[in-house]
UniProtKB/TrEMBL annotation:
The protein, known as: CRISPR-associated exonuclease Cas4
DUF83 domain segment(s): 4-159
Cofactor: Mg(2+); Mn(2+); iron-sulfur cluster
Family statement drawn from the similarity comment of this UniProt entry: Belongs to the CRISPR-associated exonuclease Cas4 family.
Keywords linked to the UniProt accession: Antiviral defense, Exonuclease, Hydrolase, Iron, Iron-sulfur, Manganese, Metal-binding, Nuclease
Recorded GO MF terms: exonuclease activity; iron-sulfur cluster binding; metal ion binding
A biological-process GO annotation: defense response to virus
Coiled coil segments of this chain: none
Cofactor annotation remark: Mg(2+) or Mn(2+) required for ssDNA cleavage activity.
Species name: Parageobacillus thermantarcticus
InterPro entries named in the record: CRISPR-assoc_prot_Cas4 (IPR013343), Dna2/Cas4_DUF83 (IPR022765), PDDEXK-like_dom_sf (IPR011604)
EC number: 3.1.12.1
Database matches in Pfam families: Cas_Cas4
NCBIfam families linked: cas4 (TIGR00372)
C-alpha cells in the first residue's frame, strides 16, 4: 500500500518518490520526520489518539470528531499537503469512515479544510497507479529542476550526479 509520505512526494517530485521508496534516505530527511513528530506531540497534548495507524501503513496525526487533522510547519508545500490529506480521506472512505480533513500550518497560523470529492477520488486512483509505475522503474526518473530542489534532502545527491554528466 502507498504511504502518505509517498503520496506527498509523488506530488512534489517523482524522482524523490523513487529515491525515498528505494530506501535511499538522507539524514536531513530523517531529521524532518523527527521534527514533524515533536511538532504534533506539542500540538495535540490532550488528544487521546494523537496518532492513528491505518493498516500499519499510514499514520494520521489526530482524529477529531468529523475531522482528521494534520499539522505542518509551513504552507510551502500546500498542494502536496492537500493531496496527502485527500489520500487519507480516500483510504478511510474505502473502510467506511467518512471524514473531512484539517491541515494546520503553525508558521502562518492558519487552518485549511479539505473535503474529498468524486473528482479527487479519481485523481487519487490515478496517482496510486502512477506511483506503482514509477516504483517499477529500474532507475530513478530523471532530474527535473524544481524551485523546491535546494530545500530537498536529495539536493546534493541529485546535483552532484548532474555535475558528472
Ligand atoms: S533535488 Fe529536486 S530533482 Fe532531486 S529528488 Fe529533490 S526535488 Fe527531486
Amino acid at each position: 500500500m502507498v504511504s502518505g509520505v509517498q503520496m506527498h512526494y509523488y506530488k512534489v517530485c517523482k524522482r524523490k518518490l523513487w529515491l525515498f521508496s528505494k530506501g535511499i534516505a538522507m539524514e536531513e530527511e530523517h531529521d524532518r520526520v523527527v521534527e514533524g513528530k515533536i511538532l504534533h506531540e506539542r500540538a495535540y497534548p490532550r488528544l487521546d489518539e494523537r496518532e492513528i495507524l491505518v493498516d500499519h501503513t499510514f499514520k494520521l496525526d489526530a482524529l477529531d470528531g468529523e475531522y482528521i487533522r494534520e499539522i505542518k510547519i509551513s504552507s510551502k508545500m500546500a498542494d502536496a499537503d492537500r493531496f496527502q490529506m485527500l489520500y487519507y480521506l480516500y483510504e478511510l472512505k474505502k473502510r467506511g469512515i467518512i471524514k473531512k480533513g484539517l491541515i494546520s500550518y503553525t508558521k502562518e497560523r492558519k487552518t485549511e479544510e479539505v473535503v474529498l470529492t468524486e473528482n479527487d477520488e479519481k485523481e487519487i486512483e490515478q496517482a496510486i497507479k502512477e506511483i506503482y509505475r514509477v516504483l517499477q522503474l529500474p532507475s530513478p526518473p530523471p532530474l527535473k529542476k524544481l524551485t523546491y530542489c535546494p530545500k530537498c534532502a536529495y539536493y546534493e545527491f541529485c546535483y552532484a550526479l548532474e555535475g558528472d554528466e
